[in-house]
Amino acid sequence: MKKIILPFIFTLLSVNVYADAPLVSISNHDQFFDNIAAFCGKAFAGKVTVDNSSGDGFDKPLIMHVRQCSKTQLHIPFHVGDDSSRTWIITKTGSGLSLKHDHRHKDGSDDESTMYGGHTNDAGWAQVQSFPADQYSKELFVSGGIPQSIGNTWQIYIYPTKFTYRLIRQGREFRVDFDLTKPISLPKAPWGYK
């Protein structure tokens, strides 16, 4: 009986110790995260600077808002005109950074294509991180009939005067630049958020 109880108690103690342990990140990931978090609570206008595909509907006012910031996660809604369905979520995972796209309907319910994104697979830089599509996203894209998207890599650049969101894959590039020197009035909450 003692042989069974002691390993069980040790396992419980180990779980409790590690449950509260802080996530450890390398300096480039921390600096990148902190560079974006420095703009928490502010919103900025943007414009499409590269788009080699037509008809995407991004010819409306574009606003990004660094809306919610914790020690491990940033929520950045991306408003396209009256469409407030998109929120970028950057998370410290303990093995790098994750970028997810939270897509909602106007009633707040999840879009069929939501929470896709990727995870860093290298150190990147304090100003630039790349997020190649993760397995969840690849399976979502295939089941959704857009297998060309399995090669997606999202990139985010953060410089003192400019924030950039970029999507690249073979034959496709999309980029939006936001002017960080001119904060604008805060937009309404994105769909599904209070």
Give the secondary structure arrangement, pairings included:
Blueprint: H1 2-19, H2 27-37, E1 43-51, E2 62-65, E3 68-69, E4 73-80, E5 83-92, E6 97-103, E7 116-119, E8 128-132, H3 135-143, E9 153-159, E10 162-169, E11 172-184
Antiparallel strand pairs: 1-2, 1-11, 2-4, 3-4, 4-5, 5-6, 6-7, 8-9, 9-10, 10-11
* Portion in helices: 10-25%
Distance, first to last CA: 52 Å
Q: Describe the oligomeric state of these chains in a short phrase.
A: single chain
What is the typical, i.e. mean, pLDDT? Answer: 91
Q: Count of helical segments?
A: 3
- Which band does the percent of strand residues land in? 35-45%
* Top CATH class: Mainly Beta
Structural class: alpha+beta
The shape, in one word, is: globular
Overall CATH architecture: Beta Barrel
What's the Cα radius of gyration? 19 Å
Order of helices and strands: HHEEEEEEEEHEEE
Poorly predicted regions are 1-18
